[in-house]
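JOB MANIFEST
job_type = single_chain_structure
chain_count = 1
residues = 236
[input]
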Amino acid sequence: MPEREIYLLSPRALSPETIAVAFAKTSRSPESFRAIAAELSDEKSAQFHEKWVVGYGHASVAEHAVLHIAFENVSRLAIESIEGNRLASYTEKSTRYQKWGPNDFTIPPELEGHPLRDGYVETIRLLFKAYMDSLEPVKSLVLERFPRRENEKDEAWDRRIRSKYVDACRFVLPAASLANVGMTANARTGKYDPQDALTRAGRGAADRGKGQGSGAGRNTDAGEVCGCSALFGGDV
């Protein structure tokens, strides 16, 4: 009777594309995953993806190729859209612990030359001013209500207080505020929500994914990445 085995195919030893092919081949091969992977090279894996993923559209193979994509300086509204894909993991820049500067917002490219642009910028700056003006008064109130604990270090006290007053003020920030998010997902995630508009951020994510996942992500249209909407906020 064959012995049970549970083990990792290490991404340090094998490319994401090779791991994806090793898992894909088990549906037709009686060999172990180790044996299948040992027979593969990056070139053979690329040929497999070119034929089956790109040529025949077997996109499920791409689910075994994991990508790590960094989005920087995209709007909060865009991040909500990105994180709408439940088949991925996310960590984003926290409005609870970090302060936003007066220019940390996006102006949608659709407003360039539009009569509403000035009104949009004026409104956004008004909200950012309200945010920045509220930080110190709210901090003072928090300091009164949450005094320093005995033997509490400066860094720990600052961190505890900051999480309270910055957290309270962040609700003034508009959806156009810029932020960062890191996403870990399989290469097939790019097929999520295809009806959303093609955007600069979506195109950028697709290009990065194709570059890392090679054939694993090549049949994903750039406009189908991450549920991107037209509100990613300009160039990314």
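[summary]
The mean pLDDT is 76.
Strands lie at 66-75, 88-92, 178-186.
exit_status = 0
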